[in-house]
Specification:
By secondary structure, the chain is mainly alpha-helical. The protein has a single domain, classed as Ferritin, core subunit, four-helix bundle (Ferritin, Up-down Bundle), CATH 1.20.1260. The protein has a two-stranded antiparallel ribbon with strand order 1-2. Helix 3 packs antiparallel against helix 4. The longest helix has 28 residues. It is globular and about 50 Å long. The chain starts with 9 loop residues before the first helix and ends with a strand. 42% of the residues are buried.
Length: 235
């Protein structure tokens, strides 16, 4: 059964709330050196998509794919620009992952014969005007300082996590879409941990801005604790 639920968008959440640069947490960073296994294995995992059925796609699922294609591009565009300014490897590594993410969504658009909203692959250009505005705002904040840039990255990943969870929990029935979104979600968890760790190395403890404490702890603090390096800072 298909669900009739509105899509939660990153643009709406970020543009309606100020970017807050407060301190709060640490996590081992799997993305700082070399090419992480996540990136190397992503293409291999995506080949499994051919084993999943092509099912009728609902209007809500189609709208979600169109938005997620652009949201993943936004993240990659921002990280590429921030790497160009700050030359910190975490931005380059995660930008490469976001390119894989947006291309994975494009595969689904092609599979369901949906129009690709990315008709111009130029950085910062989107069919959704709110995302174009958001791109400009994020770059302005991320260009103010290295700390600001890393906090922008962490916030983008928080929003991406919430959007993907919303799609998976309330909208998506199709196995192939759920398969791709779950892979993207695991990537976003890794990205958030990487940015939080990079901030810790700058002496900044990150406070989640959109995830609640329970979600943040499960994604960042619990995983960090298993590795013996995590801590939870006060607000």
């Amino acid at each position: 059964m298909k669900h009739n639920t509105r899509i939660v968008t990153a643009a709406a959440v970020i543009l309606s709330a100020p970017l807050l640069f407060i301190q709060c947490s640490e996590q081992a960073n799997p993305m700082q050196q070399g090419t992480p296994a996540y990136y190397r294995d992503a293409a291999a995992r995506m080949t499994d998509l051919n084993d999943l059925p092509v099912e009728p796609v609902s209007e809500e699922e189609a709208s979600g794919l169109i938005f997620m294609r652009q949201e993943e591009k936004l993240a990659g565009d921002v990280y590429t620009a921030l790497f160009g300014q700050w030359e910190l490897q975490v931005f380059s590594n995660i930008a490469a992952s976001e390119d894989a993410h947006t291309n994975a969504v494009r595969v689904l658009l092609d599979r369901y014969e949906l129009a690709d909203p990315v008709v111009n692959d130029q950085p910062g250009v989107f069919a959704d005007a709110a995302l174009t505005e958001l791109y400009t705002s994020l770059l302005a904040t991320g260009g103010s300082s290295l700390t600001g840039a890393l906090q922008v990255g962490a916030e983008i990943e928080e929003i991406d996590i919430l959007d993907l969870q919303h799609q998976l929990n309330t909208i998506v029935d199709n196995e192939d879409i759920a398969f791709v979104y779950n892979n993207l979600l695991r990537g976003s968890y890794n990205h958030l941990r990487a940015f939080v760790t990079s901030l810790a190395r700058q002496g900044v403890v990150y406070t989640p801005q959109h995830l609640d404490d329970r979600q943040y702890d499960e994604i960042v603090v619990s995983e960090s604790s298993r590795g013996g390096r995590g801590f939870r800072g006060g607000r």
